[in-house]
Amino acid sequence: MAIGKFEAIQSLTPNASFGIAEGDVISWKDYNEDTQPTDTAITNEVTRLQNIYDAKDYSRKRKAKYDLLNQDEMRYDDLKNSTTAWVDAIDAIKLEFPKG
Question: pTM for this one?
Answer without folding.
Answer: 0.70
